[in-house]
Structures
1.
Amino acid sequence: KLSLRLEKVASYVPQAAVVADIGSDHAYLPAWLILNGVVKQAVAGEVVKGPFESANQLVQQLGLESQITVRLANGLEAIEPTDHVSAITIAGMGGSLISEILDRGFEKGILTGKERLILQPNIGERKLRLWLQAHQYQLVAEELIEEDGKRYEILVAEKATETTNYSPQELLFGPFLLKEKSQLLKDKWAQELVQKELILSRLSEDNPNHQDKINELKESISWIK
Ligand code: SAM
């Protein structure tokens, strides 16, 4: 059984896709996708030896060696052209790490633009939306969920023919989440508001080094309100 968080990520993997799960840890997500008949082929990528071995172990235990290829590699370098990957999942990391992984994959030509990206940043969602916008990806769905008292956003994106220009507010809150305005979203940003006001109260208007941060905080506080 998957966590609710990973179950939601899995729900955006298209039927019969070839999926690459980057930072797969135990390979729970690709294993679940295969066992539940969503996909037939998957790649599990891991950069750290311990989790890579755990992934291998699970795949062997389940006898899924012919369907899940586990590779020890940095980011999207786990993907080979002959895999014909059509969906990439990257979950449980910060938005800036996910952006860096996508960036390197883009620079190396591994990201072809044909793959659906299913991303679950723990923090730094705005940074990830900025990356997607800058690389002509369009958000096709977003979801905010809560599990064990923690909130998680899931961003689903596909390459677009034109650049989508999101407003600064959409980049911060998420275009779909902003439209939906769920109670969970309100709770999330009520909490962020308290934190931002606290940080603002600790910065000094007299310190020139604080000016940019103060302006940025004041702007986002007014948007949240
Ligand atoms: N994706 C799983 C999930 O959402 O439950 C595991 C999340 S775990 C917190 C993050 C995993 O990403 C770790 O196993 C870590 O080793 C791996 N990781 C971090 N940076 C990576 C990179 N550049 N390439 C591949 N894996 C990476």
2.
Amino acid sequence: MGLLDGKVAIITGAGGGIGRAEALLFAREGAKVVVNDVGGARDGTGGSDAMARKVVDEITAAGGVAVANFDSVATAAGAAGIVKTALDAFGRIDVLVNNAGILRDKTLLKLDEEQWDSVVAVHLKGTFLVTQAVVKQLVAQGGGGRIVNTTSVSGMLGNFGQSNYAAAKAGIYGFTRTAAIELQKHRITVNALAPVAKTRMTEDLPMFQAGMESLTPEHIAPAALFLGSELCGDRTGHVLAVTGSQVFAYKVVQSAGKFKDEGAAWTAQEIADHWDAITKV
Ligand code: NAI
């Protein structure tokens, strides 16, 4: 008995890295998997069918069921193509993991418009487009289903040289919260994963050169499985983070704050004077 027996799962960007590990695990747990990947370079340039096909071959060789799709998540036509592949092959959809991503790191002063637009297009717009196309199908099927988005510590806390990526990933957080609220009535949970793992996206970071080999995509995939399976229950709108053997949650907190006399506005000077009390959590 697998946790995803009889389910159909779409995983975007599943031709390598974390998405590949998720696809292999989902298939082992009984899901029929759509392995989507444009097969480009880390910065999103180029493309080939080879990456997605290879993962489909791995799944099939292990006795699982999978089909490849090579559409870009960053266009509405691509999102429609991904849904069409799932329906043509398997007739329904149950789980979507929005995992596809690219990197174009530059400090803010050097970042150009193209580097901004391309990163936001794949991560943030791609998450919106594929989610919307899939949710329309989930609702047409009578409701129920699970969406797993992929955010990042960069989006939650910020990171040097990643204003484009961090903005896209923080946007995915806001999108996740709102979609979770809106889709509750259709019994669709929407959560996000914040992974850290050694992949081609991160392998040149100093932390991954210092022997942190335990930070693998295989450490991340079970958390995606949790959020994509019935084990997740009715939990929705959460950010589950995995870094190697550590699992934790990111939460936005609101401080208790401080009230002035009934109806009175705070002056800028008063905010400065009471900063610690206002911001204390
Ligand atoms: P990766 O580069 O191995 O995987 C990303 C995949 O997305 C690639 O196979 C790529 O071809 C595919 N892709 C890119 N643009 C696409 C498009 N338009 N349509 C369809 N597929 C496309 O990198 P990794 O590390 O596996 O990243 C997976 C996700 O996890 C990304 O969203 C990334 O931002 C996120 N993440 C990864 C972290 C890490 O430590 N590796 C940290 C935080 C977040």
